[in-house]
């Protein structure tokens, strides 16, 4: 066991390498083809020709505008909802309830949420059925374009629904770090109304702590593919969707244009981040005097009401989506104004079962492998922190966010080109590694707080009783962290289940998971089958979370101190 | 309830005098703190030079912030990186200063009992016992015998603190006093060569405090262990009966 410490100490470096090398290599892998150089496809001279082709593409400006506006608008709306909610409900019972609901909400794959929203808000969806024929007076579905409205509203709604739980989780984790409770109580005792107290006393401390997650949200929203494919406009689509179309073009020479477009996507995402950063400066400057103006009340009732209302709306949208999915999956015949399908039938489920087997098995295997790898690296990196008695460096945290901030469509496509150039066969291993790029950061973010907060005296007691670092790691620290480790594993598994692009690109379309199937079904006309796949996408992570909650309660039911530390 | 210190010693705990491998009976070790100095970011925090005889309790008293607990952390091998320590820690002639924490054999008792919540009461005690713990002195025996021997030791130790039959209990179901007693037995079963007591009675209520003091100090004396105690409470020092060093706040 003398190898324990040296082994553990190398793990942070392995994790850093896993996160940074593919991103850097992937970006290099689109840079050269964008300039015309990819010998495997006959490109052996440097040229700007592909950029000219890209710029001449009709609708390119609209694509860029859509990516920017949907990215920034959805992030701004999400942040506003989260902050209003925290301001209105800090220190109430509602917050505790929401905290418990968060992990399952986060586990909803993007594609499933998007399909749910599409089915809910489409002209013949559950929402318009609920108000028809009375009071709307509609006997046939109303005439509006959804999903796929040209302004990207549907896309924005879909993104907001998924970003709110993520930002809320990150904010809740950050609140204790900025002594939110003490700040809030102090401000309240000085006579500030609740929301004003939150805005003036807590927010300035909270925002810097959640800046990286916000940037990850902006980057994700400006470069997302699957939500945009399901809810976004199609002619022209947002830029990232166009990149995927060019990548999948049977004419391989389009890959040069796709590389240039992927590089442009990187630029668009960086521009979105830059614009946001400018906005931050502006807000900081404009609010400087307001912070110390002494005003105790600034439309508090109104803001609190807005916080309650937006939260209610978000919950209704999510709940309505879920109900709609279930109803569609059970529908046989469902004419328009009827609120419920009649009769209910299991026909769609029975029909889907034979085809579900393979995607289900592949989703589970990829998810388990990527989660296992990420968990080993995360626990190793955190234990190394403990052994070195020093926290993570600031730059290391940036590396952790790298795959979340660089547009995946850019670096994953670059990796595909490297794969092609090196003559490597695409397959399950590449898919698992690519999934781990996105699973690892979430597993780490989910576990780090609990791991670092574990009372160091547990290890000290064990060491003073004669136990080596390896022994106390296995016999004390791991068992004490059973619950958070299993929760982190469930989070990681759900992230993997929801991945679309890494599976599609790294397997060259040869592996199908629940998510890739659901996304391709969503563009077809079969709502019943699509609903079945979207629900299966929800079911698998839900199973993971159920196991993570139930296993320790079952196995350690006589050790209540572990379950309720 | 029987006063704890009158409970019969059952032989579950061997004195450190029995530890020597050559069979010679030694008179226990002295804990020697040689020119210990602890700095915080280059600023001297505390210095100490002391010899603690077997069975003696040296008490360090002083206000919070003078570095009492930091000193214990240095002796036990857990000094936080913000501090630097100098000076040697010796048990008789053997130097502990360079050894890792797990090899120092210094039994540590904290304010909180810190019973591992993932182990049963008996599991906590077994966690403290050296691996090759068996009844026959040669240390040989089948795996089954070893397991039975460990089990018997645990039962005897529990009996000694008036908690016979508690081995399978969840530590969270114990009372505060029971937890403290189990924590003490866990340390003693690990056969320490000296004891470090970090305000071990400060979180107990008054009646339990009296009981635990006599329980701890009786064991320390009977086993001939040198002990270093840091505390706020003058009554602790009085009960320990040993020398007292008052640490003032540094200018």
From TrEMBL, chain A:
GO CC terms, sorted: plasma membrane
Location, primary (coarse class): membrane
Membrane topology of this protein: Multi-pass membrane protein
PROSITE patterns cross-referenced by the UniProt entry: ABC_TM1 (PS50928)
One GO BP: transmembrane transport
Keyword Membrane: yes
Transmembrane segments: 66-89, 101-121, 151-175, 212-232, 252-278, 302-334, 360-382, 394-416, 428-448, 478-501, 531-551
Subcellular location: Cell inner membrane; Cell membrane
Positions of the ABC transmembrane type-1 domain: 64-276, 360-548
Keyword set includes GTP-binding: no
Matching Pfam families: BPD_transp_1
Keywords, ordered alphabetically: Cell inner membrane, Cell membrane, Membrane, Transmembrane, Transmembrane helix, Transport
InterPro entries the record matches: MetI-like, MetI-like_sf
Family the UniProt entry places it in: Belongs to the binding-protein-dependent transport system permease family.
Protein name as annotated: Putative thiamine transport system permease protein
Species: Onishia taeanensis
TrEMBL record, chain B:
Example of a GO MF term: ATP binding
Alphabetized Pfam families for the sequence: ABC_tran
Keywords, comma-separated and alphabetical: ATP-binding, Nucleotide-binding, Transport
SMART domains: AAA
Residue span of region Disordered: 1-22
Residue ranges of every copy of the ABC transporter domain listed in the record: 30-247
InterPro entries attached to this UniProt entry: AAA+_ATPase, ABC_SmlMolc_Importer, ABC_transporter-like_ATP-bd, P-loop_NTPase
Entry protein name: Putative thiamine transport system ATP-binding protein
Taxonomic source organism: Onishia taeanensis
